[in-house]
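re: that complex we talked abt at group meeting.

here r the seqs, copy pasted straight from the sheet so there may be weird spacing, ignore it
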Amino acid sequence: MSDQPVGPLQVDLDPSGVLVVHGDIDVAGGPTLEASVRSRENGSPVVLDLGDVDFIDSSGLRTLLAVSQRASARGTKVCLRNVGSAVQRILDITGTAGQFELESSAG
Amino acid sequence: MNHDGPPRSAAAVGRGPVEIHLPADPELVSVMRLAASGMAATARCTVDEIDDIKLAVSEVLLVLIEHAASTSLTLRLELRDSVLSIEGCAETSSADLDHPDLALSQTVLAEVSATNSIDLVDSELRISATVRLDRTHAS
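got the structure back, here u go
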């Protein structure tokens, strides 16, 4: 079981422009993630580090899919970095992994 | 995880039901996930089963919060015969059972639960899921 405390989702911007997500992406955390991503949508590819995400449900997935659709409309992609088992599982269940570029570690 | 608790057969004895009335507050969904996980843990379920329970509870509450558009809802948990039953309901006047977002929730529920249903009964949106706690996992 994770040592990550239960609490609101947090999104940090690292020096390379990667959005580092901490917490659960659910009906509560999704809007926070959505707002953070929107503030960074400037034509560059969106990179989300999900290494500290231990839970995601279908509402969280919808947030990621919406980010992906907007990126596609701009001709860019969304990269999901450090995808853990919870995120990978919901991508597998819903067959939506192909909507994203998956990266195992920082390059 | 502590494995010094009661024997796994506690799931067969039964626990609950526990009925929780709560506001339709998204911030409380993680609290309910923890409550259900804790209840299931008394039956010494596996980590995979806990993951399924967390997803099932989250989808049940998500459906009620997003589609019932009610200010309050009810969650009912019961552990019996190696099955955790998760039932939720909320008053509604606007639920659309054909909404595409519901299909995504149903896809997830179908994967993590043995049975699930979403029904509109009179003016109440009802959703239920059962998660088995006696499965054998390949890993």
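couple things i noticed - Strands of chain B lie at 15-23, 72-80, 83-91, 115-121, 124-132. Chain B is about 35% helix and 30% strand.
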